Amino acid sequence: MSLKPDIAIIGGGPAGLIAAEHLARAGHGVHVFERMPTLGRKFLMAGRGGLNLTHSEGRDRFDTRYREAAAWLKTCIDAFSPTDLRIWADGLEAETFVGSSGRVFPKAMKASPLLRAWRARLEGLGVIFHLRHRWSGWDADALVFDTGESAALRVEPRATLLALGGASWPRLGSDAAWVPWLSEAGVEIANFQASNCGIEIAWSEHLKSRFAGQPLKTIGLAIGEETVKGEAVIAAYGLEGGAVYALSEPLRRALAAGPARIELDLRPNQTVEQLAARLGKARPGQSLPTLLKKTLKLAPQAAALVFESEDVPREPEALARRIKAIALTVTGQRGLERAISSSGGIRQEALTDTLMLRARPGVFAAGEMLDWDAPTGGYLLQASFATGMTAARGIETWLSAAAR
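^ thats the sequence. predicted structure below, dont judge the formating
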């Protein structure tokens, strides 16, 4: 069996679907192929935490969140900015609002209503979906799909967009099975590594048994010169949470040379001097646990972290310094199977400015397949949407040139 659509998009996540919408509006015949039985599995997973679509901070600060890929992604985000993303969501009756942290959410705080409305819009534009179609590479110029039937499906489009995702949460569809086929075609690919994931710390048995699953509110974390404020959760294996995720990249670099040291600040909004002054006014004779609880209002799980290392000082200034810089040894990061995202993927050098593969003209790529990384906070979804839109416009240009 074979098909010859105008455009084939492989991957039914945000990057693929926003490209499908743009191209269908332009009058192109678009077929979307998805290996899973439903669209947007990872998008729906993101919605469990409230569907953080993007962030409201200024673009100068926003762009830096992509670190080494910032300059590369800037033009993509210019093509589909945080404002554009909010207008788009509002148009699907998923009116957005800015949370206290600057993050942007739909008021419904869910992904499923937005995804349902989006699919209905796409079907209304004539987009055709092929679910349970697993891409298995190329046969000459034809895309080959395993559909579970005895014979494979061959698809020969005028242009192709690959939006297959990275390598995190593979059970949701992003398993990086495409890497060998692109490598064989001469596409440069950086190895995938876990990002926005938990870190491993050898806690004492007391801390693990008593406080695993407990939150750490308003903390600071630092590695080298990089510091972040946020929240975390104590896990039996170490730490999880937004503050941890924001340091994924520097931690990954540090861990390449062995265990890494980070510092945990339990009171990032107070100075050593302020804490020491409060501790110095405590009633004589109080035990250290009581002192931390009653004088500094530390939660039990936070206070327990102060005692994870030996010889906790009693002198106010020394104790204040301990509270603001608890040294923790990180032995590793959690794996791709539970990471929120992945770093690595198709290198910038392998792509044109329109996100077409240099080694395979007429084939474009977008989303987490590309070699960029970002923390949680709306930056992951924003870049996925933006690269999908950039690739869609690149496909338009390519098709127009081919028609001349």
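The two ends are 30 Å apart (CA to CA).
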